[in-house]
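Notes to self after the Tuesday call (sharing in case useful).
The group wants a holo model before anyone commits to mutagenesis around the pocket. I volunteered. Ligand is N~2~-(3-carboxypropanoyl)-L-arginine. Logging inputs and output together so the record is complete.
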Amino acid sequence: MTLVEINFDGLVGPSHNYAGLSLGNLASASHGGDPSYPRAAALQGLDKMRHNLALGLVQGFFAPLPRPNDGFTAALGVLDAGDPAQVRLRAAAWSASAMWTANAATVSPAPDTADGRCHLTAANLVTMPHRSHEWPDTVRQLRLAFAATAHFAVHDAVPACFGDEGAANHMRMAAHHAAPGIELFVYGRPGGRFPARQHEQASRAVARLHGLDPARTLFIEQSGEAIAAGAFHNDVVAVANERVLFTHEAAFADPEGTYTAIRAALPEAEIVVVPTSAVSLADAIKSYLFNGQLLTLPGGEMGLVIPLEAWETPSVRGWLDTMLASNGPIRRVLPVDVRQSMANGGGPACLRLRVVADPATIDPRFLLDPARIDTLSAVIAAHWPEQIDPADIGTDTLARTVRAARGALLDAAGLGELA
Ligand code: SUG
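Result:
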C-alpha cells in the first residue's frame, strides 16, 4: 500500500458564470454581472491538471454537478422571473460553484484515523444558498470514486445547524504524507462584517466522525480581521503541506499561540510567516498568494503553484523572489493561469481536493493521464458554451446546452452513473 497525495480538481462546469452570489468574497462581488467564458475556464482548469501531472504528481478530477438544479428552485417555490430575489435564487440553481472542490469535503487520511481508513465528510456549505445544494450530488460522486469501503468511509454532511466549508478550512501537517499527521481545523467567529462560514462545532463534529486523536487535532480561530478583509476561507491566507505551514501573519486570531500549539504537536513543523510589512492582507487576498498548491515534488523539494495574479502583484513578487533566494523549504514557484476561476474567488488551491491514499484503491475513472485529459479537453472544446451573459441564465436554450454538455462529458469519462 503506497499512500501518496492525489489532487482531485473540479472540472469547471458548462454553466460557469458570474452572479455575484458570495457575500464576503470580494472577487465574486466585483465580477457579478460580467460575461463568463465557460469553455476557456474549463480548459484553464485542465491545463493546470496537465501541468501538475507533468510535474510527476498523481492527478484526479471530479465531474461538474447537474445544473441547473430545478429541484432546488422548485423546493423554494421560485416562479417569478421579474422578482430580483427570485432571480438570485434561480442563479443559485445554475451556479457551477462545485468546481471549487476544496469545499467538497474534509479529508482525513488513513494514518490519522482510529479505524485506519481514509475518512471524507461532504461539506454542507449552508452559509451560501448557491452552494448549499451541492452536497447530496457531491456525496454521490465521492461514494463512486471512493467505493472501496475497506479503505474509505464517506460521510454525509453534518447537519445544517453548523456551517461547514470542507477542506478550505482544514490543514494537515505530517513529517511526510504517509506518516500520522496533525489536523488543523480553522473556524470563524460570527458577528463581523462578513459571514464566518466555518462553525467551530461543524469542525469538531467532523473530527469526531473521522475518529481523530484529540492530541493531534487542533481547533484554531481564524482572525476576524482576515474575514473582514475578504478571507472568506482560511485557504485564502494559509496553506500547509507535510511539515510546512505557509501563512500570512494575520491569518489566525492568536498567531503565536497557534504556532506554539503546532510545534508542540509536530516538533518537525516549519512555519513560514509572511509579515504584513512585506505583503498587506489586501494584497494577499487580491493576489491569492496563499491559495497556491503547496506540493511535494517527486524529487522531494516543495513547489508552490500560484495564480498569475500573485506573480503579477509587485509586493508578492518581491517577497517570492526573496524567499526563493533564501534557504527556505519552498524551492520552486510555478504560476498558472486560472483567471476565469479567480474572477469568482477561486484560486489553484480552491480548485482541488487533496486525498492521501493508494491510487490503486480509487475508481480509476477519476484518475487522469495525458490521454484522458486530451479526451476531456475535446469534449469541452466541442460542447461547453463559449460565453454566458447574465441574461442567458434561466433560458431554456442555455439549460439544454448545459445539460447536453455535461452528458457528453459523463459519456466520454465513462461516468454514466452520475447522469
Ligand atoms: O464559495 N465563489 C466561491 C469560491 C470558492 C473558493 N474556494 C476556496 N477558497 N476554497 C465561494 O465563494 C462565486 C459564485 C458567483 O458569485 O457566481 C463563488 O461561489
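Two things stood out.
DSSP finds 15 helices and 15 strands in the chain.
The chain has one domain: 4-418.
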